[in-house]
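Researcher: Here's my situation. A collaborator sent me these components and asked whether they could plausibly form a single complex. I don't have experimental data yet, so a predicted model of the whole assembly would be a useful starting point for our discussion.
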Amino acid sequence: MKVHEVGGTRAESDTSHAEHERSPYQPVFVGDAKRELDELLTRYPSKMAALLPALWIVQHERGWVSDDAMAEVAQLLDLTPAYVKGVVTFYTMYHQHPVGKYFIQVCTTSPCGACGAEKVVDALLKHTRCGELGATSPDGRYTVIEVECLGACGFATPVMVNEEFIESVTPERVPQILSQYQ
Amino acid sequence: MGFPHAPHAKETPVLSQYFGDPAARTVAGWKQRGGYAALEKALGMSPADIVNVVKESGLRGRGGAGFPTGLKWSFMKVGDGKPHYLCVNADESEPGTFKDREIMRWTPHALIEGSAIASYAMGAETCYIYIRGEFTEPLTVMAAAVKDAYAAGIVGPNAMGTGKRIDVHVHKGAGAYICGEETALMNSLEGKRGNPRIKPPFPAVAGVFGMPTTINNVETLAAVPHILNRGAAWYKGMSHSNPKSTGTKLFSVCGNVAKPGNYEVEMGFPFKDFLYDLCGGPTPGRRFKAVVPGGSSVPIQTMEEAEATLMDYEGFVAQGSMLGSGGVIVFDDAQCMVKHIARFARFYAHESCAQCTQCREGTAWCTRILERIERGLGTMEDLDTLLDLSEQMTAKTICVLSDSCAAPIVSGIKKFRGEFEAHITGKRCPMGATAAA
């Protein structure tokens, strides 16, 4: 889905990727995660329908969705790894590579753009020392990306830090906000 | 009420009455406020009678299309021996729209109650509430409310002690605007890529998991308990001289306006009064220039058009646009229309599912041309190319995403042509704005 010339703001974080792949893969779906998946499977008439929720569990546990994790999910849900990858790559919220400890998404769609979202992006890039969109800061702490409409246009500019949703962010508020995510 | 502002005397708070009131989020709090009385009443009625009340009320879909809700429900053949499903479209992603977010954050039980009534009326034992993944707070609030509703016996295998099964599940999306299109939503729910399906078959015949399905917007369903409690005639009576558009509507207001937020008014409310009185007009020292009244997919209005509009389905059409989702985006005289139209196009290029060539190629091509014009590198021929492209992108694809990209482009060139020409002849943006990043 994200093959357009106009899209694409992600950059790979190769080092942590490589480090991660050196150790043998530990399955995600053991213990509580397995029980959570089993409960989810009772909600739908097909196993495939549990795919998006299963991928959310993976991302929650590991911070991103690796090829190994996709293969694990595929096996549990009677799908092929290629099918799972096809779904993962369609949706923007699944990370296909490790990201910073704090993943920061800034809405820059038109309504927020009209209210100064670009300056919020600039302030975030400067204060996180990420340098550019999609890149992870040298200390591994932050990744900043632009995101399309977060559905909070009356509270420009909304910013998400991992699962936390922060409304009405201005460039001036950025240092104080970042101080809470160290 | 004008959440996050104090309510305005000209508002008619029905859905928004308890916005900002955390006590309304619990089962006990909701019951204290009259909640779940409508569900109790509904479960004592026949499904056909419920459908008739909703038909009689004139309620129309609040997600954008405005299809009559009762009629939609009547397409579900109760008793055909198949499992039926209700999908709640809580994928609210239309730029400018943030009303369903507030309904779910503050009154989750209003949505559960409306969904349970709708499920029973359509013979559906399972309801999935599909919420966009970025809505972390609504997801948390809704999940907690569903859990409480199960614990209180309101939903589940023996809903309200009637022996009827109504299961309600929250399903989290994963970031894709297109999943707000009803057939894409069903594919996504099934664990597939969110590609829209060719219709027919329509969802009421073969929807999610191949079974009869109805997809309703959050706001539509939240209105249903009020209609059952207070009657179809009461709901129908909330209309300013147009019997085709009834009830109240939540409008989300954003952009360059003094008081952004959600406002609930009766259908047919004068848009001029709405913009200048309820929303407080422009910010100090500025003037309004343009309005996109129904989310980014509808044509742009000039202020002349906007100020002459009555806020209902027909009223917006009569003034060159559409009610859409009710997401009002306001631009003032410091804004460059070319820049914003280019940014809208970029949004659609990013969100195209890429199934249809016209959309996959067209949205990206339009974006490149518009951004070139904004940087002062465009030609007059580019405007013709944009209009030609837009025509090829309209009514030619599986869903309306590419039509939505074309709408602001065509209306923008038609109504603000001077700004486009100034960029081309002056070889720079006259507003001093820079191209979208």
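Model: Some features of this prediction you could bring to your collaborator: The beta strands of chain A are 102-107, 142-147, 159-161, 164-166. The mean pLDDT of chain A is 90.
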